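Hi D.,

Good news: the full-assembly prediction came through. Inputs first.
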Amino acid sequence: MGIKKVWEIEHSCGHVAERDLSERAPDKRAGFAKWLAGTDCFDCYKKKNDGDFEKKRRAEQQEALSEAAVYEKRSGLEELSGSDKQIVWARQIRVQVLGSLYEEVEAGKQDESWFEETVLKPARLIATSRWWIDNKEFEVEDWPELLASGAESAEANENLVS
Ligand SMILES: [Zn+2]
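Then the structure:
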């Protein structure tokens, strides 16, 4: 009847799964089945790794947000409106954008008063998460113009109007 092809594997997580080992040479199947038994089943493996990935992602986001909070406070930036998810995202975009614009000052191309007038002043007026998210693809050189028009648009600061 030959060497069996489908093996019942009792995984280390306790789940039992049938595995088709027909792709392996007959004399390799027992060893491979034994190795499989020392591992978690596919679902548990996936769950565990997704969990780690999610935890890491959340920790990174927390770190980015606490850096953003320091920056926001120092620069007098308003809280943003939007869903929790939008706010988290928009705050990171805002810090990134303003940081890249500040590089112009650091590179000596602009000065502090340019940054205050052209960047921070309008940025303080733009309090809608959606606005930051919608414009995130633009290049650094486009931002002074975007900020100026955002500061005047009702949509970009709807929560300050009321
Ligand atoms: Zn399992």
